[in-house]
Amino acid sequence: MTNELTRAKYFSLILILGTLTALGPFSIDMYLPGFPAIGKDLGVDPTRVALSLSSFFIGISAGQLLYGPLLDRFGRKKPLYIGLVLYIISSAGCMYVSTLNSLIILRFIQAIGSCAAAVAAVAMVRDLFPVKENAKVFALLMLVVGTSPMIAPTVGSYVTSAFGWHMVFLILGMMGALILLATILWLPESYKPDTSLSLKPRPIITNFLAVVSEPQFYTYAFTGAISFSGLFAYVSASPLVFMDIYKLSDKAYGWVFAFLSIGLIGSSQVNSWLLKHFKSQEIVPVALMSQTIIGLIFIVCAWNNWLSLAGIIALLFAFLCCMGCINPNTSALCLAPFSKNAGSASALMGALQMGIGSLASAVVSLYDTHTATPMAVTMCGSSLLALIILLLGRRKTGSALTAAGKDGAVLVH
After folding, report:
1. How far is the CA of 30 from the CAs of 1, 151, 155, in angstroms?
2. What is the Cα–Cα distance from 18 to 121, expressed in whole angstroms?
3. Are 42 and 97 in contact (CB under 8 A)?
4. Taking a C-beta distance cutoff of 8 angstroms, is the pair 142, 267 a contact?
């Protein structure tokens, strides 16, 4: 097979896996500018609409634990098909809600569907690419995923202004249908179903416990998840901060959100370059310490009302730049020891990210202070706690990191 064809295959795999991973973030970001309009139509305060965001986070967290064993038992594609169909149906249902409670429930179901895509994509990275390439592949996926906060809020703001917020969910449903079609036609099955795996509760729990008892997994899974929860706090609080405190229009908010995402995308690609010179386990602590310092500066400035619009954008941009160097590396490091049960490991990692992220989202939503302080405290706290867990966990991982990936996945050409 020619190198050109190999590169084309590599590109198509990254693109499809990236769109699968981006489906959840798109579902989060695209409807954020519509919060005021949704609140008005459903007769509730716009701040309460954030409950539908929290229910989405909870759905993704719970759903990943469901899909992990299914992906190992039936292969990657069949559970993925079921999840995408569920996503399409629930997206259509969101268009016709008349109460906030209905939206909260349907968003939960929509999340259950979308998380099949996220878990399958992460597991397939472990299936299809060599372990030593995983961090680079995750960085490339983040490049695709990073288009979500760049495009989704901006598109969502214009769609909401022109056609109403209901149309946002129609577009999301159509995206799910296109991704389902691409998955059927062009994504290879990367894992032979393991019929020996039982779907009874006890063996499933035993399998999850075996994964979470691996020091390298729990160190980097919790480090990555807690650090990543700072992003959830930012996403949840940003509509209030920018549209209520700084009085930006929904369209201007969309553009600011898009600009800030450049930090996340750009740094993830800088991370690919850094990996040529440093190991993942060397990059993570430096990025976390930098993120914690930025968070502390953010708290001081927010508490004293020193932040102009430009100032808060600069601090958030710097914080997200650190995130782009943390997440790909922690994801690769916690999955490296696994091949046979990569689906379960991927599910646990994703469940931790979304579960802890939903808590951060809920915490920041509890404080109606009309300042940026709750956002700053939550974001800084997530970085500091992640750094502490990393430093404690590294005592047990130590040289075990060099043993990761002896089972060696094979790159598909």
Report:
1. 40, 8, 7
2. 8
3. yes
4. no
CA atoms within 13 A on the CB side of 393: 26
Assign 320 a pLDDT band (cuts: 50, 70, 90).
very high
List the structure tokens of 128. 């299809």
pLDDT band at 408; cut points 50, 70, 90: very low
Pinpoint the alpha helices (H) of 129-165.
134-145, 147-163
Domains belonging to the chain, first-starting first, are 7-188+209-397 (1.20.1250.20)
Q: Which among 213, 194, 200 is positioned nearest to 341, based on CA atoms?
A: 194
Nearest partner of 369 among 285, 321, 305, judged by Cα: 305
Instruction: Give the residue among 114, 115, 122 at the shortest CA–CA distance from 17.
Output: 122
Average pLDDT, the chain: 84
- In whole angstroms, what separates CA 239 from the centre of its chain? 19
Residue 3 burial class via C-beta count within 10 angstroms: exposed 0-12, middle 13-18, buried 19 and up: exposed
